[in-house]
Amino acid sequence: AARRAARRRRRLIAAAFVLPTLLLLGALVVYPVLFSVGRSFFDAAGTRFVGGENYAEMFSDPATLKAIRNSAIWVVVAPTLLTGLGLILAVLTEKVRWATAFKLLLFMPMAVSFLAAGITFRLAYEQDPDRGVLNAVAVGVHDTVTGTSAYPTARAREGGGLEKGTDGSYSTESALETGKTAALGFVGVQAKDLPSGARPAAPAATARAAEDELRGVVYLDFTPGGGGERGRVDPAESGLPEMTVEALRDGETVASATTAADGSFRLTGLDPGRYTVRLPAGNFAPPYEGIAWLGPALVTPAIIGAYLWIWTGFALVLIGAGLAALPRDTLEAARMDGANEWQVFRRITVPLLAPVLTVVFVTLVINVMKVFDLVYIIAPGPVQEDATVLATQMWLVSFGGGNDQGLGSALGVLLLLLVVPAMVFNVRRFRRSQS
Question: 396 lies in a domain?
Answer without folding.
Answer: yes
